[in-house]
């Protein structure tokens, strides 16, 4: 007898491939003296959604620690290191969350009914053009690196740069070093030319952790068909984004419109290349939305469109991910495909890339 949507969702490893929980909520709350923020503000939401692991982008090119941490005089490296310290502080104080640096950590979280955290960067500015920093970040738990965030950094151009180019020489070196270390390379926010360069350089699968199909919504953050196809051919994957601006020009898109993006990506790249993003900005302090909106008219001097932070009804929270499972089955995806979309494809990429690191990685890095 076929499983129900609830049974499929319960049994699956569910990977949320992009979130900013620590950078945008935990960081400033701990700076304000709060403790146990993950347990008090985020655990129930993640548990209700059946989340096994979330990939949290705790630093990068954007002004992380939106409010009030941005009032602190810090640069990109300092912000990342502060948020990393808060991450370890939260994990030490919780019996419900664990750090994931291997896929076995994620599988253990599933067995033990815990939630795993993968440390990521959304933009490589904290590297400060030092490959040594990347190796140190790996030692500290970094397992996924988004190369840029919309604008130019020392690795290459983001999607908002005028006449955006590809990777710099340093960007090529970073991708090669990520391959050696076992860090997943993430091209969401990277220019099309930069993504083409990554595909040429990387020997391992790459991901777009929160992007949709440009053929259905002509936002530069979305991927054209040829990049979806090439990412899939390399064993990589595209995880969907749930924000309205990346689904449709309709300010209030539906879950069915988001499903069309998933179906399109499956048609172009196959069912092995789809995962969950979804970059849901839930449980933020309401004033954070106001602050981000006020700052979003320009990024590094580049005009950007206003974001109103709207999501389709039925997937406005990670707590509602069961709705996604039910909807995928409703539109005709098989149980096996749905399990892959929920986390199986992410786990395959993690298995491939993370196991590429030397078995005794600390000693191997030390010899360099």
The H/E string reads: HEHHEHEHEHEHEHEHEHEHEEHHH
Indicate the CATH topology: TIM Barrel
How many β strands by DSSP? 11
- The domain tally reads 1
Gyration radius, in Å: 19 Å
Number of helices: 14
Return the average pLDDT rounded to an integer. Answer: 91
SSE class: alpha/beta
Proportion of β residues?
5-15%
Name the poorly predicted regions.
65-70
Question: Any guess at the CATH architecture?
Answer: Alpha-Beta Barrel
> In CATH, what is the class?
Alpha Beta
**Helix share bin:** 40-55%
**What sort of overall outline do the alpha carbons produce when their principal axes are compared?**
globular
Distance between the amino and carboxyl termini: 55 Å
What summary fits the major beta sheet? 6 strands, parallel
Looking at CATH, the homologous superfamily is Metal-dependent hydrolases
Give a structural overview.
This protein has a single domain (11-359), classed as TIM Barrel (Alpha-Beta Barrel), CATH 3.20.20. The protein has 14 helices and eleven strands. The protein is globular. The protein is an alpha/beta fold and 368 residues long. Helix 1 (5-11) crosses helix 12. Strand 4 (115-122), helix 6 (131-139) and strand 5 form a beta-alpha-beta unit.
Give the tags.
single chain; 368 residues; alpha/beta; TIM Barrel; 6-stranded parallel β-sheet; 3-stranded parallel β-sheet; 14 helices; 11 strands; globular
